[in-house]
Each structure stands twice: as structure tokens, then as C-alpha cells.
Amino acid sequence: MKSFIGVALISVLFGACSPSGEAVNIQDLDRQFIDAWNNKNADKITSLLAEDVDFLQGNVHYKGKSDVAKQWVQATLPTLANLKTNVISSAADTRTAYEAGTFAVDVTTDVPNQPRGFGEGNFILLWKKGDDGAWKLSYAQLEDLPVQVKN
Length: 151
Prior knowledge:
By secondary structure, the chain is α+β, with helices and mostly antiparallel strands. 31% of the residues lie in helices and 42% in strands. Strands 1, 2, 3, 4, 5, 6 and 7 form a seven-stranded mixed beta sheet that branches. The N and C termini lie far apart (70 Å).
């Protein structure tokens, strides 16, 4: 019994000391994404996407880095500003991490005499660690309420 406890203790210690065995800081990953979004940095956002990323919003589903970058990032980035999130749930381990909660964003327009809007809803961002050790956004889901006119 003592040898089992010793082996278990050594395994835990080596696992805790190993950088590859540490859980990722999910707040840092999401902060990179949100900062890139608020800075309108489409290249940075796209670099954070996994090759097989899925994006869902209502009945819309985009699949793959190229499609998500084109249909979601490039198409909506110019019309949104000041993205903020309120995290309700999060977890991370050595291979996956997620945050979920609510979001709020300003909706802008280039059309003259059109009012600005305010959008809000729920989100989940799921990250996965690749074989190369890089963390990439693997799944994003937004469920938003109708945009409200901002006074």
C-alpha cells in the first residue's frame, strides 16, 4: 500500500511540474480574442481559430477556419464595437477550456441617419489545445436578442 501511495504522489508531483500538464488560463485566451475583436484585428482573430472551428448563431452554422473567418469575422467585425462579456461558467484542463455567459456589444452602421444599436445575448467559446501545443478557438456559439436602438 505504501508503494502505491508513493508512486501516486510522484506521478502527481511530476504532472504538476510539467508545463504540458497544466491547465490553460482561459481568461487569457478569451481576453486575447475580445481585445482583437475590439481592436478590429481580423488577422489576429483568424489566427486564433482552429482549422475545424464551428460557429453557431441561431440557425446559422459556419464550419472551418476559412468559412468562419469570412462569414462571421470579416462580415460582422466592421459593424460591432465595445464587446464585453460577463462570464457565468468556465473550466479548463490540459486539452480543453471554455467560458460561457452573456455578452453586450455596440452595433454601428455606415448608413446615414441610421441609429446606433445595442446587442446582447449568450455566448460560449470553447478552446482546444492542438498537437503543436497551440490553443485555438474550436467552437463559438452566440444566441442574441434582437438589437435595440441606442439612445
